[in-house]
Write the structure tokens for this entry.
Amino acid sequence: MNQSMLLIGLCLALVAQLSHAGPKIERWQTTSGARVLFVENHSLPIVDVQVDFAAGTAQDGEGKAGVASLTRGILDLGVPGMDETQIASSMADIGALLSGGVDMDRASVTLRTLSMADKRGPALEMLRAILSQPQFPAAVFDREQARSISALKEALTRPDAIASKAFWAAMYVAHPYGRYATPESVSSLARADVVAFHAAHYTAQRATVAIVGDLSRAQAESIAEQLTVGLPSGPAMAGVVLPNLPSGGEQRIAHPAVQAHLLLGMPALRRGDPDFFPLLVGNYSLGGGGFVSRLMKEVRDKRGLAYSVHSYFLPLQQLGPFQIGLQTKKAQANDALKVTREVLATFLAEGPSETELQAAKQNLIGSFPLRLDSNRKILENVALIGFYDLPLDYLDRYPENIEKVSVADIKAAYSRHVRPEHLVTVVVAGE
Amino acid sequence: MPAQLPDNLKFYQKRLMPMRHARLISLLLALAAPAPVLAETYEHQLANGLRIIVKEDRRAPTAAHMVWYRAGSMDETNGTTGVAHVLEHMMFKGTPSAGPGEFNRRVAAAGGRDNAFTGHDYTAYFQQVPKQKLSEMMQLEADRMRHLTLDAQEFAQEIRVVMEERRLRTEDQPQALLFEQLSAVAFQAHPYRVPVIGWMNDLENMTVNDARAWYEHWYAPNNAYVVVVGDVDHQTVFAAAEQYYGPLPARPLPGRKPQDEPVQTGIRRLTVKAPAELPVVMMAYKVPVLRDVDQDVEPYALEMLSAVLAGHEAARFTNHLIRQQRLAVDATASYDSTRRGPGVFHLYGSPSEGKTRADLESGLRAEIALVQAQGVTPDELARAKAQLIAGQIYKLDSIFAQAMEIGQLESVGIPNAQNRRMIEKLQAVTAEQIQAVARKYFRDEQLTVAELDPQPLPIAPRARSPFAPRH
């Protein structure tokens, strides 16, 4: 095991301090038009790469719900000259890890590899082939389609999944964010749909490459070129249309579970909106701040109504949701809903107190180093900045942007983004 | 499914499914490591018996602080199952000098994140903070190690929260229910038969005095250890520990009965019916765990067997059962060689549409039979070892993961300084040893099989009411 001894030596020798401010991010474009963000960091012999495409479920298209997820799921299960087992074996042999997933906006492929050339080289070459030349073998398509259908059928029995689907559908009526895959929609997909989806959406123009770790700038540039030169070519970033705000209301769905699942919310916030910081700081006091939020105190601590209760904003390319969620035993569903609505109404009317505001700032600013204390966390942040085209000094200015928020800013931002007449409520298993 | 701690949720149960060998193998790195790597960990014992273990990692200006108590649900008795976990909740409900909610408030004000978790073997509390806040965390933890209030009103609220937690994580989760029942049948005498969160009826009848008795029995410095990893100097940490934890008195601890499980002499089977779509098969074979780091061979071989069967996307279960035979939509294996109690090797999965639970059970058994008859290939063994080494390096990217690893090993009484030896032993595992444990322990006499028989929902999941404006 001389090799691992060498690795250890490297780990010891290169103990570098991560910066207290945000990491130094370099940004450029590849010749094929992909955006690249890079953070050089030699503290560990590791390279992390995340490639994001504007190929999330919002791009599914009418009648094709599920195609984005299926495409991503099969992407790394066949490249020229290698089947899925050979791919997985060769990655395992060098200790490389492939992961990723799909959300509304993004399809992500993430690689973690050791940085030594004999590990990094083959791992990145495999990633290149996966992104540019996926074979989508017919037998693999059939099998993964069947597995997806099984998973969707299982999800249709689960109260949390039922609640989530109903919630998104109610918030985003006739909008891509409200569309979801069903066993029927996935059954109707053909391999050609996946091939076409890849060709249209996994293009260099829609790609963002985030690289963090033990590389020089020159090495990172060459890797970014390698990963994107063979990607399909196509039009620039796909837009998502503005959703109409829902007219509010409440939906109740019967289910035999012992606990009711409650969700309240509405479309609320785009990435890059300047109201992000007042909404974030305010939400800390409302339901974001772990064990110290109002919702946690009123619903859990004072009344013992729930184990977990939270609120958050999920900013997306288009208005992403503001959401409150909790679970409580069936008989308490209405009580819990009443308390939750009262907490929200009071907060919207009055905002946080000055004391709460100071506590929120203290935590959000004080915990800033915890957001960036590993390469993995830096990668997530940098990928987000790249994909949504946020300012390069987003992380550097994060503490000061929180510091300058006032109670008046929070009240004004909530009045613009969280409007009771548009709030939808879903209760599963609540009777 | 990576096994990660949810940021704002307590978990009371080691994850059933993923990454079982992560811990042991985790050590692989240090293994090959020359002395300096091991020297990264420093230890000091206070006069009251509390041990402090420090690992310096200066990559970022943060630190993880953990307090581990050697008391978990396996130390509970009938009628008060779940009390270890209930006490964990009550630890956030105040002392005379820091009232209810004050602990969370002060950690938040420090820019920190905190939580706790209870397992069969231990109960642990942690904070992740900017490094300059470490001593304040020690002050808070030392205070509640001895001075917990345990107010009856607070208890009455919190026990309801715990029952909601049980509903959320077990009652409405068919796979969790199945696992709970499987453990209750596989073990008859040993307390591993009881779920960490406790039986619902015991929670319904628990009193604040039960929680107080638990606290008085087990929460003492001589039954605990502190793990600190991060941008710290170990001497400074030792001095702070002396200042805050040092004044707490040691106390006599209750005896622990072994409660050894009688030998199982025949296959056991059970079925659970619950609303679901996919059937599930879980198989539990009784196997040994690590007791003597130096002399033992079999636990290391079982760890490698688990890696060969289900350690990565090209491992046998995925390759054979999911891909080639299309027998399963999911299939995996898990084994944890480091536990205080008896060992179990789990195999589990869900059959594909058109296949039965019996088909999948046969498929899982056939994979074991294949290893028994033909062993594993050199490539497979080398691949498992390569993955483990890489995983060890990747773990260095997380301060929290490093602290968890130290804490979990110590919880079963293995000093983390033994890591090097454990890794050597893992690396030395041969194909013959893997075949030998497969032959010796994977027999029906030692097997319990649990099946989830999925039931259709009584009412189709459609809207009972159309979307209606609320009043």
